[in-house]
Specification:
The chain is an alpha/beta fold. Helices cover 26% and strands 10% of the residues.
Length: 278
């Protein structure tokens, strides 16, 4: 499952790695040490070196924007881009401009695949050997991603990137997923400046329970509301907003829709389909 997202991650992160390599790379240890004034401080400001305020970390020149799309329960061969029967013209265009990878690893489970993808580590190494709801008190299976395993977003954020997670979050322990917190393992605590989506493995696509960062989102009153469309709109809006405010800073956008996860159909379609059965 989620193999398309894995392949996109490999290609996009390869671009990011190349950009960092050209500028000397990122520190081997994060976070960076706290700022300390290196000049001389005398009895008064007249006897002291000029003040030097700590400067924001800037991404390497030419660092690329990264969009990582993780499609739930989608197999490698389902889409036309890789020989499948589902037309995928947008992915066809992207593939024609880049690279297609056909060797990949997937854990065949939701939380583990996602944990491996966003940390770049084996899922057992980040305590995600099984889905969050089935976590156990054994090493590799607690469902609690350790602080020592920084996510892609955390590394990029500490190197000058703006970061956002839109969509499904199945990497927060179930006992920490309420409004009471704690919030250390919510998306905002995993290196993402902005989060819009839901916590858990699945969600109603017409009346979802959503969070914006840590705040519960009021239910939509739009009779034509659909979750995938809402997620796409928020992803686009976030990019436009941050690029308008900070056009010189690169961004990392992780989008995890779930429209392909399981069979979904409106009551109208189901009724029509049933009526046509012989």
């Amino acid at each position: 499952m989620n193999v398309l997202g894995s392949m996109l991650a490999v290609s996009l992160l390869a671009l990011a790695s190349a950009a960092f390599a050209q500028t000397g790379g990122t520190p081997s240890v994060l976070p960076r040490p706290d700022f300390h004034f290196q000049g001389n401080v005398g009895r008064t400001w007249r006897d002291s070196d000029p003040a030097q305020f700590p400067q924001p970390v800037q991404a390497p020149k030419g660092a690329p924007n990264i969009v990582l799309i993780l499609i739930d329960d989608a197999g490698f061969g389902q889409f036309g881009t890789f020989g499948g029967g589902v037309p995928s013209p947008t992915m066809d265009r992207l593939a024609a401009e880049g690279l297609r990878f056909n060797r990949f690893h997937t854990t065949a489970l939701c939380s583990p695949t996602r944990a491996a993808l966003i940390t770049g580590r084996n899922h057992h190494s980040v305590a995600s050997g099984v889905i969050a709801e089935a976590a156990t008190g054994y090493d590799g299976y607690t469902g609690i991603i350790p602080r020592s395993a920084g996510t892609i977003a955390e590394v990029l954020r500490q190197n000058g990137y703006m970061t956002a997670w839109i969509g499904k979050n199945h990497n927060t322990p179930t006992w920490e997923a309420s409004l009471a917190g704690p919030f250390d393992h919510w998306a905002n605590g995993l290196g993402f400046d902005y989060f819009y989506g839901f916590n858990g493995g699945d969600m109603n696509h017409w009346n979802p329970v959503l969070f914006e960062n840590r705040n519960l989102v009021p239910a939509s009153t739009d009779p034509n509301y659909y979750l995938t469309t809402d997620l796409a709109d928020h992803a686009i809006a976030w990019v436009r907003k941050v690029r308008t405010i900070s056009p010189d800073r690169p961004f990392f956008l992780y989008v995890a829709p779930t429209g392909s996860r399981s069979s979904r159909a409106s009551s109208t379609w189901v009724g029509t389909s049933t009526a046509r059965k012989p």
